[in-house]
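Tutorial handout. Part one gives the primary structure; part two gives the three-dimensional structure as tokens.
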Amino acid sequence: MTAAGRPTPLVPSPLVDTVFDLDALLEPEEIVWARAARAFATNRILPTIEDDFEEKHFRAELIPELGAAGFLGMHLTGYGCAGAGAVSYGLVCLELEAADSGWRTFVSVQGSLAMSAIHKYGSAEQKQRWLPGMAAGQLVGCFALTEPTGGSDPAAMATTATRGADGWVIEGAKRWIGLASIADVAIVWAQTDAGVRGFLVPTDSIGFTAIPIGKKLSMRASIQCDVHLDAVQVPFDAILPGAAGLSGPFGCLNEARFGIVWGAMGAARSCLDAAILRAKTREVFGKPIGATQLIQAKLADMLVEYEKGVLLALHLGRLKERGTLTPTQISIGKLNSVREAIQIAREARVILGGDGITSEFPVMRHLANLESVRTYEGTDEIHQLVLGRALTGLNAFS
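Part two.
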């Protein structure tokens, strides 16, 4: 601890922190979580991430380490979860995504989607069966909602669950399901005669198949899958008793969207740091490009949007901790953070010149990943319609 009682940083602060003193707005516990996540990202992810992205390699051996650090389901209470505040969770998302979007995505899928679904809607037996192992990183979960025909209209899902003699029989297909090929349990959302319900499906069930999606130009160091459910049979008590209708999956999606609000700003910070460093060291016409007015103007605009994005995330985090955060407010954050992070990454690529398209710098990797982040958990257009409905009271979704 410092003399003032605030935690000492575990690793050097990014360049943007010299101007934007975020720590001054945080509680000591929040700083500890942020520094722990930054140290993990620096020591365990960054040394290999460029090679992992190039080789499409997911380092599953890091999962128990994430659990040991307390990052998995950290915003949940009980069952081995850390019970941390919303801002602490957001800061961990920011620091992990500053290394790579795929690792923040892993924490989101495991904690905000799969674990949250069980924690929010599961029975006492289901929670005890799955949550401690998932919090420790010993078990992996996935969240099977999106289908091949599109993810923006879950009400039109074609996957069905029907009552059989000995339990439920699930038929259908899901697409872009993170972690499915390495998961131990899938939260599968399906249509029943009583509407959309969620089911806990062990992935070793007969008829459950998860095939990693290849030829990805984005999120290459993580796993997304096609899932096929061919007459998968699960017992009657596999249903999540507390989830009825689309409010079930939407409640989990809002948890994941909150993490994205923070996480995208981590990718933006990484790109801004790279641009600042390059502006100070790359010389053209006899001086560093950072000494030119055009480059300084770009850097200034990038910093302003980064600071605004983080301040919005912090505001939403404080609202969440007070229990007053609304889905519409989360949409504002998700739309703004990802859109501005992509713009910051694009400007950073310009400042880096031709070198910006190489893996010598993280910018193109972040830019490619952010295109996926922009698409999942609600596209820009979906969130624009959410906000438009809130402003006008009129539904333009159909």
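Part three, for discussion. The chain has eleven helices and eleven strands. Residues 247-392 form a domain with the Butyryl-CoA Dehydrogenase, subunit A; domain 3 fold (CATH 1.20.140.10).
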